[in-house]
Amino acid sequence: MREWLGLVARLVTGGVWIWAGALKLGDSYQSVQAVRAYELLPESLVEPVGYLLPVLEVVVGFALVVGVLTRGAAVLSALLFVVFIIGIASAWARGLQIDCGCFGGGGYDPGAEAAYPWEIARDAALLLASLFLVRWPRTRLSLDSVLFRPTAA
Amino acid sequence: MSKKSAQSNRERAAAALREQQRQEARRRNLMVGGVVGVLVVAVVAGFLWMRANDSSGDIAAPAAGSEFGLTIGPEGAPREVIVYEDFHCVHCADLESRTRDDLTAAAEAGDVRVEYRPIAFLTQYSVRAANAFKVVLDESGPDIAKTYHDLLFENYDEASGSEDGLDDDTLVSLAGEAGADEDAVRDGIEQVTSQGWVDDATKAAEDAGVQGTPSVLLDGEPVSGSSEDIANSLAKAVG
């Protein structure tokens, strides 16, 4: 039962990552602007992080969906969610009105204030799913179970 | 079978098992290393691809003196600055407050020619404010329009609260404060009569490669970074 739950957690979390990352892959500039809008990183880091995040999201999502290195991918996934929750909470606390840039977009958004609680709730739920996989990485229909099957008893 | 050889059989079996476990662990480590390697290569390749596709450095903007801007400073000044800005953009307002005094002084001293190009990338207020700016420019001339432009950004905080920004009455009264005849500009502001100009200006900026505001060019080269970085670069160039 737990291994099936793990499969669901993998597919949902990984699917969200792939979707979120893929929407940003086509627009490097916007991804950089979305990072810059948080006003948290020094300018020298804004561009590298803006380029890196969408790629990392897609790769982590891919690893989770196919179930390869599940525990490692889940650890990265959980770390990313912690970072995003901190980012959104800090934007909210500083009164910034920005689109979280979670699924593309980013930058100024006059309706941002109303969206922050939902974004944090969504990320927290996905963080829990990731932590579930860190604790119980053995899941159904995973590439791990094929790659790392013991060759002999 | 002697006791001794039974014992050596057990030892051999144990050794074989240990050997098998060692090979198992080796295979496992190689596999993990291989998969990690593939994923790292994918991340690095993706990163480089994202960097190569960042087109923000390519802006082929027309030089100062275009039909979509307001110019201060003399023609033939040694430096040229072009500022694409949106009246509903927080970093534009920030950039304005950081650079206005420097740029105005340098323009008056003849050291720089600055063209402000208002465009509408963000909200309906971006359009209405840029329209109001154009109406004042047409009715009252560049000096009053520059003051109006400054006032619009000084009132950014009030405009930032909602998508609607400042209401028409406030746009008109600020025009009056800038020195325009309120009755002459009211209709144009309320009816958004220069929306076509705003659309064309925005389209021209997009065609030139502008992807966001503020976008600043110094002698034709895009200046990158946060509004603070841009302000520092400009201060260094014209100071």
Task: Explain what this protein looks like in three dimensions.
- Chain A: Pfam families: MauE.
- Chain A: This is Methylamine utilisation protein MauE.
- Chain A: InterPro entries: Methylamine_util_MauE.
- The complex is a heterodimer of chains A (153) and B (239).
- Chain A has 153 residues and is an all-alpha fold.
- Chain A has one domain.
- Helix content of chain A is 73%, strand content 3%.
- Chain A has six helices and two strands; from the N terminus they run H-H-H-H-E-E-H-H.
- Chain B has 239 residues and is an alpha+beta fold.
- Chain B folds into two domains: 51 residues; 169 residues, Glutaredoxin (3-Layer(aba) Sandwich).
- A five-stranded mixed sheet of chain B has the order 1-3-2-4-5, sandwiched between helices.
- In chain B, helix 2 packs parallel to helix 9, helix 3 runs antiparallel to helix 4 and helix 4 packs across helix 6.
- Chain B starts with a helix and ends with a helix.
- Chains A and B meet through helix 2, helix 3 and strand 2 of A and helix 1 of B.
